[in-house]
């Protein structure tokens, strides 16, 4: 994967063990780091700038996913087709200019279900909120999948309810109205 990234000059984050590694400080990386700085310190993800993602591959136990970005959307779309065809990985769009790449079958919905079951709970009692393609598995597997108003129609089709967009207090309103 990292060889393909270098060959196609696509950049982003490599999620490993307990950190997010990046080689180039591109827009998505800066945007994600800025968002993370708003979180309480104990919840902030660790970002590490590295000289080479390729050199880091052998230094980590697990690579969870790649979050890739490019201002040239057609180039990113072409790259995802190569990744899916040559490597058999799954590419899910998580923002208008960002795609998540992971092993086929690794999804938010699957991981959420594993965690819920480990807690002795049922997915029928879970509410999940999402606004992009990488949220579909979670929306579909939760007892109550709720799509944000800014989601595409395709994402909304997998939800039982649709609320306001992600710049509004729709989640808080939904929780107050439906769960409390």
UniProtKB/TrEMBL annotation:
InterPro entries, per database record: HAD-like_sf, HAD_sf
Keyword Metal-binding carried by entry: yes
Entries under PROSITE patterns matching the protein: COF_2
GO molecular function, one term: phosphatase activity
Top-rank lineage group of the source organism: Bacteria
Key words of the record: Metal-binding
GO CC annotations on file: cytosol
The protein's name: Cof subfamily protein (Haloacid dehalogenase superfamily)
Organism: Mangrovibacter plantisponsor
């Amino acid at each position: 994967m990292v060889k393909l990234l270098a060959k196609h000059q696509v950049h982003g984050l490599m999620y490993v063990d307990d950190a997010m590694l990046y080689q180039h400080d591109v827009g998505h990386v800066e945007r994600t780091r800025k968002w993370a700085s708003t979180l309480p310190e104990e919840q902030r993800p660790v970002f590490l700038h590295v000289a080479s993602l390729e050199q880091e591959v052998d230094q980590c136990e697990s690579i969870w996913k790649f979050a890739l970005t490019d201002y040239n959307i057609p180039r990113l779309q072409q790259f995802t087709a190569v990744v899916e065809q040559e490597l058999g990985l799954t590419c899910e769009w998580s923002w208008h200019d960002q795609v998540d790449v992971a092993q086929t079958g690794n999804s938010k919905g699957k991981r959420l279900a594993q965690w819920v079951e480990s807690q002795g709970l049922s997915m029928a009692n879970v509410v999940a909120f999402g606004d992009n393609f990488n949220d579909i598995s979670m929306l579909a597997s939760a007892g109550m999948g709720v799509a944000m108003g800014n989601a595409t129609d395709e994402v909304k089709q997998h939800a039982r309810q649709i609320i306001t967009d992600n710049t509004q207090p729709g989640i808080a309103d939904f929780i107050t109205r439906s769960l409390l």
